[in-house]
Amino acid sequence: MFELFSTREVASGIYLLLLLLWLILKNDGARAVIALLKTVFKPIIIIPVFCLLGYAALLVYGLQFIQFWEWDLLKDVVIWVLFVATPICFKAGTRKIKDYPFKQMVIDNFLWSAILEFFVGAFTFSFLTEMIILPVFTFITILKDYDRDNPKHKQYQKVFDGIATVAGLLLLVFTAKEAVTTVTKDGAISLLVSFSVPAIFSVFFLPIVYALAVTAKYHDLFVRLYIRNHMSNDGLGRKKSEVFLACGLSYRKLQRFEQADSQYISTICAANDDDSFYEFVTNFNRT
């Protein structure tokens, strides 16, 4: 088994199966699992996931013409797409107005996360060690992100952030030690190939992340337009066109438009006047 899957992947699979079994055995647990599966396999979720996998397949097809590509890396690519790229892509599409710019989000949450995931995932420990550290790090992550926006928990979040940082650094140190052992045993070429894959995928996935983020922003704006139009499609097409002409494919402009729209939304909604809306868009273009 460990020839195909790493000790970390086997340990993760065991814990996921135990979690699934626990959920099923609980009262109404089976219903909850079925409801979760129905949610996961909704078109709005499953279609983007298949698009990401298809895009990754095209990249893999291109990489096979490179001399150092190894098909053993395919499993790691699939895991990376599902558990690193997909969450980050969906996260990019759900950013709120107050969040920092898209560029900063990409640097903080995509490139570093992708490289770190491949680095930590490439060098694993013994099966027993993995069975211990997985629940520990899961628990730390849950504490770190639990109810993070609640101001009452702000002081505790700093403590949890510190614990998570120390734990992450310790894991990185021990992983680096394991990496040295692996390099000594298998050579540096294999290590360089493992590191080049996440770098390539991180760069080539940036357009997908950006496209999803822009699409999500337009979706939110158009839904608000539809509600503001009293659930009517009359004139909605022209309003959408005006917004698109004003913002184009610029994520930064979409953020600015969303902020401006929030400031004037009460006046526009009360009037429900098309001329007022077009004037609002014109004034936005002048700023």
Give a verbal description of the structure.
The chain is mainly α and about 290 residues long. The protein is about 80% helix and about 0% strand. It is built from twelve helices and no strands. The radius of gyration is 23 Å and the shape is globular. The N and C termini lie far apart (about 60 Å).
Name its key features.
80% helix; 287 residues; mainly alpha; 12 helices; 0% strand
Q: Look at the structure and give the mean pLDDT.
A: 76
- Cα-atom radius of gyration: 23 Å
- The portion of residues assigned to helices is over 70%
How many alpha or pi helices? 12
Strand content: under 5%
Biggest sheet architecture: none
The best one-word shape is globular
| N-C termini distance | 61 Å
Taking pLDDT < 50 over at least 5 consecutive residues as the criterion, the unreliable ranges are none
Order of helices and strands: HHHHHHHHHHHH
Structural class: mainly alpha
Count of DSSP strands = 0
What is the fold's blueprint, element by element?
Elements: H1 7-25, H2 29-40, H3 43-63, H4 73-92, H5 102-122, H6 127-145, H7 154-186, H8 188-204, H9 206-228, H10 236-247, H11 251-271, H12 274-286
Helix pairs in contact: 1-2, 1-6, 3-4, 4-5, 4-8, 4-9, 5-8, 6-7, 7-8, 9-10, 9-11, 10-12, 11-12
Summarize the structure.
This protein has helices spanning 7-25, 29-40, 43-63, 73-92, 102-122, 127-145, 154-186, 188-204, 206-228, 236-247, 251-271, 274-286. It is mostly helical and 287 residues long.
